Amino acid sequence: MKIKGYIKLFCIVCALAISLSACLPRPANNGVSNEGGEYTEKEFTPAVDNGKDSELGSEYREIFALVEAGEGITLATDADFNYKDVEGGVKITKYIGNYEGENGYLILAIPETIGDKRVVSIGKEAFAIASKLDGVIIPDGVRTIESLCFYGCNYLKYVKIGSGLETVGDYAFSMCNRLFEIDLSTVESIGLGALTRCESINTVKLSFIGGTVDKNTYLGYIFGASNSDFNSEYIPTSLRNIILSDECKSIPDLAFYGCENLTFVIIPDSVESIGIRAFYKCRSLTEIKLGNGVRTVGDDAFFGCDSLKSATLGASLEGLGMQAFFGCSTLENISLSAKLDEIKSSTFYGCRSLKTIDLLNVRVIGEDAFYGCDMLTPPDTSRVETIAQGNGSLRSSEQ
C-alpha cells in the first residue's frame, strides 16, 4: 500500500511540474530567423571604449615609456622579500618592501637573483593587496606565478613578464581592476580566473585560448567562467583586443562565444583552423582578416557578428562552414580564397549589406546561401555547377 501511495505522489508532482513549465514565459528572440524567414537581432549597445587615449590608457603608456627608457624603476633588493629555497633556485613568498616610487609611479623590478640564487617562482599571495604598486617587471628566470599572487593589486596597470614564464596560477591577477594590458604569450598554462574582475583590461596577448592548448579552450576560462556559455558574463566589457602569437595553431570551438565587446583580433598565419561558433555573436567586431594558414572555418563561426564590415578569408581556405556569416548584416566586402569551391547552406544568410563577391572558383552553392543579400550585385556564376534554392538573385546571372 505504501508503494502505491508513493507512486501516486510521484505522478502528482510530475503533473504539477509539467503544468508550471507550460506557464513559464517563452524565451525572447535571440537573433535566429523568425517564422517569416527574416533574420532579426536584438538591440545592442557596445560598452564605452576604454582605449589607449582614456585616462587609464594614458597612465599605462606613461609607465610603458618609462620602462622602455629604463627610468623611474625601483630595483628591489633581497631585503624587500621573504623567500625560501626551492628546486632550481628560490621562491619569493612575500613582498615586504616599501611603496614609494619615482615620477609618481611605483614600478618594481624583481631581481633575477636573491642570495646568489636565481628567482624561479613567485609564491601564493606574495604581492596580494599590495597597495600603490603601479607596475611590475618579472625577470626571465621566473617560471611560475602561483595562485592569488597579485590578487587585489588595485593600482597595478602594467606587468612585464619575462620570457621564461610557463605557468600562471588560479586567480593570479584577479581583482587587479586597473590592469590595462598583459602579455601571456609565452605561458604554457593559465589557471582558472587568472584575470577575474580585471575590470579595466583592454588588451590580452595569448598563444592559445583557454587554460592550455587542449584544455578549457574558451576565453572566459581565464576570467573565471566555468564554461563558454558564461563568456559574456565573466569577460570584462573593457576587453577590446586579443592578439594571438605565432605559437597559436587553432582557434577552438566556442573560443570567443558571445564576446560582445571584442573589437579586434589578430589571427597569425600559424592558425590552421577556426572552430564552430568560435566568434559567435562577437557583435563589436568590425573587421576580420584570417591568416594565410587557415584552411577551415567551422559552422556558425561568425554567426551574428552584426558590426562586421569586411572579411578576408586567406589564401589557404578550403572549407567554410554552414551559416558561417549568418546575420552579418553590415558585411559589405568579403574576399574568398581561390581554393574554396563550395558555399554551404545559409553561409551569408541575412548579409543584407553585401555588395560584391567573386564566385569564379566556386562550384556549389547551398540552399539559402545568399538569402536576403538584397544589395548584392549578381556575380558571374558561369562556372558554378549547382545553385540550390533560396538563391534567386544568383540564378539571374547564370549563363
Please describe what this structure looks like:
By secondary structure, this protein is α/β, with parallel strands linked by helices. It folds into two domains: 47-248, Leucine-rich repeat, LRR (right-handed beta-alpha superhelix), CATH 3.80.10.10; 272-399, Ribonuclease Inhibitor (Leucine-rich repeat, LRR (right-handed beta-alpha superhelix), Alpha-Beta Horseshoe). 11% of the residues lie in helices and 19% in strands. The protein has helices at residues 2-23, 55-69, 231-234, 392-395; strands spanning 73-75, 81-86, 89-95, 107-109, 113-114, 117-122, 135-137, 144-145, 158-160, 167-168, 181-183, 189-190, 203-206, 241-244, 250-251, 264-266, 273-274, 287-289, 296-297, 310-312, 319-320, 333-335, 342-343, 364-365, 386-387. A hairpin with a 2-residue loop joins strand 5 (113-114) and strand 6. The longest helix is centred in the first third of the chain and has 22 residues, at 2-23. The protein is elongated and about 75 Å long.
Question: What are the key terms here?
Answer:
four-stranded parallel sheet, seven-stranded mixed sheet, 2 domains, Leucine-rich repeat, LRR (right-handed beta-alpha superhelix), alpha/beta, 399 residues, elongated
